[in-house]
Each structure stands twice: as structure tokens, then as C-alpha cells.
Specification:
By secondary structure, this protein is mainly α. It has 2 domains: 17-215, no CATH class; 219-458, no CATH class. The chain is built from 20 helices and no strands. The radius of gyration is 22 Å and the shape is globular.
């Protein structure tokens, strides 16, 4: 199968496990924002993002090694068993020890809530590890279905625990724990992960080899966490939990774009790693960047343009101020997409240290801007620092990556399209009905113009399939 076809196939399969679950969380957003107090919602948001800080420390990013090492061992079952066994032997004991320590770091929170937080962290870490193992074994469909199982059950339980039973914060935590546990059972059964574990294959050499790749990814994960979370923590510290709640809601709609971005990122990491040794890898990477960038610009244009409608439908409660930060965060997500694409090429070349360094510098920019300006411009310090951090990361990686992988970028096209998105974001911010309508029309034209070949191919394929079905019926 050609590389492009494999990439499209993986993107479609992985989109099932990213897009649908995210939309499920959007459906429950009115319940969460409407039935949790601002303090509860702010705390709930902090808990869900804190797990992304604990996970790389507790596991030393061994789940990243699982994915990358298993890709190169897809035709060697014995090596697969060795990798999975040593990941399991290393991850679970370290995870339990870390979470025991974590339990005593929240003395002011009720014991019942602390127990639920620890359970949520534990299940999330194990589930994340099994998901990366499944991706490494090329079980992308099982990976995606497990995510759907997770989101569907969580959506139902949010309705039961928060809307019907009024369990508040504990209800939200229970919903996540039960949903992730069900997802873990499903994925473990489909991947037969337990059958790969053979304690006779425990090897210090194998663990050291994987750690040499994974531990430099810790600074990258922590820096990425800082990029996403430091602004929320600083807002909470200087302005209170309610300010964090407003900023968390402001991120909800821009995160819709991250759904699309994360789908391509997952598929691209695998595709880039498989293609890294090809003779035409430089040309291929440049061509794929161009295709993905045009598609994502079209998606971003549509999302920005229709934000006034989406916001009024999905957001409940006193969160009107959140709207003002969304145009800035949209642009931040666009630069995040560029840096994520380039990160896939770093992973393909196993440049884990370089990934950590570049992300750490961007995170430092984000943190310092937040800290210096939060008392001057309030929540805008958070949204602007996120934009500046991702912008710097994208520009730096585009230059730095040329040291080990020559890629031709169409800089003029990139700049023009980014300027177009900036103009659309400004019009979105102004909230003038006529300008909103102009934005909507522009977004449809731009999305079609940039991706007309892809759209026509999809319609042609769909037409042929329908025609084939008609012939069968007749």
C-alpha cells in the first residue's frame, strides 16, 4: 500500500477515536458548565489536566517508547513480547509508588475525593500505556473503538451522576474512572496485551535502551504541559478559580480544532517513522506538510467563522467573557498544529532530546509572559502567551529541522494563509453580524479552494460506491 494511502487510512481510522469522543464531550458541556459551580468546574478542569503532568513523571515516558520501538518490531513477535513485558514490569510498580505519594499531596481535599483522583490517575496511566502498545502493534481500529467506548460511557454517566443525581465533582470523577476502566478492559481484550507478557524476558538492557529514548521526552511532556497548564495555574493563583473556569471554557471551542490536529498527528507519527529511511523522504515530508496544512487551514477557517453560532448553542452559564479569548486561542492551535507535524519528523529520526529542548524554550516563553502580564491584562495574558509560545515553537522547528532533514516549505503560501486566519479571527472578535456572515462565506470559499481536489476525489469515490451498490441491487 502506498504511503499516502496508508496515511489516509490511518487518519480515517484514528479520527473515529478522536473526533467522535471529542464531540461527545462537547455534548455534555452544557451539563458540566450548567450543573457544576464555577469552583467545582475550575477544580474539575485542573484535575483532568494535572494527570498529563503526573503521567510522564510516573512512567518516565515509557509509553512513548512502546509506540516507537514496536513500530520497528512489527514482524518480530519475540521482540514485541520483550518490549511489552519490560514496559509492564517497569511502569506498574513505579506508577503505584508515585500515586501513593500523590495521595498525601492533597491534604485539604476530602479523602473520598482524593481516592477518586488517585484512581482516575492510575487507570488513565495504564490505559494510555495500553493504547500506545496497541498503536505500536498497528491496532489502530481497536485503539479508536476503545476511545469511543470511553467517551460514550462517560457521556451517559455524566448525565446520570451530575444532571440526575447531582453528585457534583465526585460524580464527574466517577464517570471518568468507570468509562476509562471499561475502555481498558475492551482494549486489553482486543490487543491480547496480556499474552505478550512473559517474565522470562525481563531485561535490564532492554529497559535501559527504551529509557534512553523515553526519558528525554519527559522535558518535552512537561514543557507541553506548561504550555497548556501554566496559564491556568497562574490565573488560579492570581485571579482565583473562577478566572480559570472562564479560560477553560474559552479553550473548549478552539480544542475542537485540536481534534482534527490530533488525528493527523497520531497518523503522521506512524507514517513519518515508517518512511524515514525512504530515499525520497525529504520530498515526501514537504508534500505531506503542504497537503495537511491546506486541509487544516480550511477546517480552522470554518471553525472561526461559525464560532458565534456554536458558542451560543453550546455554552451555558456566565461565561460570556470566554468568547473574547477564542480568536487568539484559535491562532495558537494553528501554530500548535505546525509544531506537532514537525514533531512527528523529530520522532521519526528518534531526536527525542531535540523535541524536549525546543518545547522547553517555548514553555519558558509561555510561563514568563503569563507571570509578567497577568496583573496587567488579566486572562489575556494566558491566551496571548499560549499564542506566542506556539508561534515561536513552530518557527524554530521549521529552521532547526533542516539540520537533519531537508524539507522544502512554501513560506509565502504559509504566511498568506496565516494572515487570512488572523483577519478572520479579528472579525470574529468584533462580533458584528454582517462581518460574521462575511466570515462564514469566506470560510466556505477558502476551505473549498484549498482542498477542492481532495473534496472532488471524495465525492467521486462516494459516487462510484453508490453506483456500485445500485447495480448490485438491480
Amino acid at each position: 500500500m502506498k504511503r499516502e494511502q496508508q496515511f489516509v487510512k490511518n487518519s480515517i481510522v484514528l479520527s473515529i477515536g478522536t473526533i467522535l469522543p471529542k464531540f461527545a464531550s462537547i455534548i455534555t458541556l452544557p451539563i458540566v458548565t450548567g450543573y457544576l459551580t464555577k469552583v467545582e468546574y475550575g477544580t474539575y478542569d485542573l484535575i483532568t489536566i494535572l494527570v498529563s503532568f503526573v503521567l510522564p513523571i510516573a512512567t518516565l515516558q515509557m509509553q512513548s517508547a512502546a509506540f516507537r520501538f514496536l513500530i520497528t518490531a512489527r514482524n518480530d513477535s519475540e521482540t514485541q513480547k520483550t518490549i511489552i513485558t519490560n514496559i509492564t514490569v517497569f511502569t506498574i510498580p513505579i506508577c503505584i509508588l508515585t500515586l501513593m505519594v500523590l495521595f498525601f499531596l492533597f491534604p485539604k481535599i476530602e479523602v473520598s475525593t482524593r481516592i477518586l483522583i488517585i484512581l482516575y490517575f492510575f487507570v488513565d496511566i495504564i490505559l494510555t500505556t495500553v493504547r500506545q502498545i496497541s498503536r505500536g502493534l498497528a491496532l489502530n481500529l481497536a485503539y479508536s473503538i476503545s476511545a469511543i467506548v470511553n467517551s460514550f460511557i462517560e457521556m451517559l454517566l455524566v448525565v446520570v451522576f451530575i444532571w440526575a443525581l447531582h453528585y457534583g465533582l465526585n460524580g464527574a470523577l466517577l464517570a471518568m474512572i468507570i468509562a476509562q476502566t471499561c475502555s481498558l478492559f475492551y482494549l486489553s481484550a482486543k490487543s491480547h496485551v496480556l499474552s505478550y507478557i512473559d517474565f522470562r524476558l525481563v531485561s535490564k538492557t532492554q529497559i535501559k535502551s527504551m529509557l534512553s529514548y523515553s526519558w528525554p521526552m519527559i522535558p518535552n511532556s512537561l514543557s507541553s504541559w506548561i504550555m497548556r497548564v501554566s496559564d491556568r495555574l497562574i490565573l488560579t493563583w492570581f485571579m482565583g478559580v473562577e478566572a480559570n473556569a472562564i479560560y477553560a471554557v474559552a479553550n473548549r471551542l478552539p480544542n475542537i480544532f485540536s481534534i482534527v490536529q490530533s488525528t493527523f498527528s497520531l497518523a503522521w507519527q506512524e507514517n513519518a517513522s515508517i518512511s524515514v529511511e525512504d530515499e525520497d523522504s525529504a520530498e515526501y515530508y514537504g508534500k505531506m506538510f503542504d497537503h495537511i496544512f491546506r486541509l487544516l487551514v480550511g477546517c480552522m477557517a470554518l471553525l472561526i467563522a461559525f464560532t458565534p453560532i456554536i458558542f451560543n448553542i453550546l455554552i451555558r452559564g456566565d461565561y460570556e467573557e470566554a468568547y473574547n479569548h477564542m480568536p487568539i486561542l484559535y491562532l495558537a492551535m494553528m501554530f500548535s498544529t505546525i509544531s506537532s507535524y514537525l514533531g512527528g519528523i523529530y520522532i521519526a529520526h528518534m531526536k527525542s532530546k531535540e523535541i524536549g529542548i525546543t518545547t522547553a524554550i517555548a514553555a519558558a516563553f509561555n510561563f514568563l509572559i503569563n507571570l509578567c502580564f497577568v496583573n496587567l491584562i488579566g486572562i489575556y495574558a494566558a491566551s496571548l502567551s499560549t499564542l506566542i509560545g506556539y508561534m515561536w515553537l513552530s518557527i524554530y522547528r521549521m529552521r532547526n529541522i533542516q539540520k537533519f532533514q531537508k524539507i522544502k516549505f512554501h513560506y509565502r503560501r504559509i504566511v498568506l494563509l496565516l494572515l487570512l486566519l488572523i483577519v478572520m479571527a479579528i472579525l470574529c472578535f468584533m462580533r458584528i453580524p454582517m462581518l460574521d456572515m462575511l466570515n462564514m462565506l469566506t470560510s466556505v470559499i477558502v476551505a473549498f479552494a484549498l482542498n477542492r481536489i481532495l473534496i472532488m476525489r471524495l465525492f467521486h469515490t462516494l459516487f462510484l460506491q453508490v453506483k456500485k451498490n445500485i447495480r448490485k441491487d438491480s
